[in-house]
Amino acid sequence: MRVKGTFVALIGFFLFLAAGIPAAEASTPLKKLGQAPFYKAKNLKAADVYPLAVRFKKDVANGFTQAGATELFEPFMEQLKKQKPEAVSVQPGQTLQWMMYKKKGKVRVTRDRIWAGKAPFEAYRVVVPYKDANYEFIVPKICLNISLKEVTAAPKPATPPPAAPPAAKPEEPKPLPPVKETPAPPVQEPKAPPVTTAPPAKEPEPKVAARKGFFVGDVGMLTRLDPSVFGLLRAGYRYRFADKFAVTGLLGGALLIDGDNDESAFLADALLTYYPVSNFFMGAGVGLWAGSSNSKADLILEIGIPINQAPQSLNFELFLEGRSAFDQMSDWTKYGRWGWGLRVLF
User: Fold this and answer.
1) What domains can you pick out in the chain, each with its CATH number?
2) Which of 196-205, 261-270, 328-337 has the lowest mean pLDDT?
3) What is the pTM assigned to this prediction?
4) Which residues are CB-neighbours of 195 under 8 A, at least 6 positions away?
5) CA–CA dist 346, 248 (Å, integer)
6) Among residues 283, 273, 287, which one has the least CA distance to residue 326?
7) Sheet harboring 86-90: ordered strands across?
8) pLDDT of 45-73, one tens digit each?
9) Helices 57-66 & 73-82, crossing angle to 10 degrees?
């Protein structure tokens, strides 16, 4: 009976986590525009894009910062100022790396979206050259939600070869002497110009690589249904050894805030995290829950979402966590601990 209870507990534990897991596809479908607009319009004119961007300049700058592209804000505004955007149609199936929008007056950014509407939508296209790349932005006419479509390398013109020296003129034949008949000297052939080759084009500068190691700090809450409430505080180090996988070690404590049948504890946790898509992660691991009167080895399961993913600055994640001692899984509804928190990656 105990083995059966443990099996049922594990099934319930994973069903709880699976309820919040989105489909692990490359891009999230976007089926409708205009529900969270920067500026709602029926037919936005090309000449109106720059004045509206200036009008909402603070919000637009905030959107670029949230997207991790602060350095592109000024070049984007300069390009709009000197050149009207080009009218285009975005076909179903085309992807956007990110899109800024407004919800309840606050600027937000969504990533990895694919246009899944039944028909194309009308937009303006703005290409911003910056350093050694061209950044292609899309601005839907209906909402002014600025979106980054793609980044391509900017081709550099090859240096033209130096001009060839002029060919030598042939020597004119000498006149014959008045008395003696002598043959004229042979005419010299013109010299061939030297062969020159164009120097190789300069390689584009390598992009800054994403960081693999982060110092990590967690702050949050845990609760148990007996009931007990804990304040969660942990710190440690994360190493991202592949594009979609990372390992994290954490030390900290769970401070008992409320509850008569529990006690504060020291925590030592190790987690393996998997990112099936850029805006969602799930993790599993083991941990030590060490109180003054009792210590347990826990199974830990997590799901969460990254708030931002800037390569060279602070990053933040929100997570939901469930943990239960291995020898108490037959009654995890009573002894399991559930909570949430904010993770800071330095």
Assistant:
1) 29-153 (no CATH), 213-345 (2.40.160.20)
2) 196-205
3) 0.43
4) none
5) 13
6) 287
7) 28-30, 106-115, 95-103, 147-153, 133-140, 121-130, 86-90
8) 999 999 999 999 999 999 999 999 999 99
9) 130
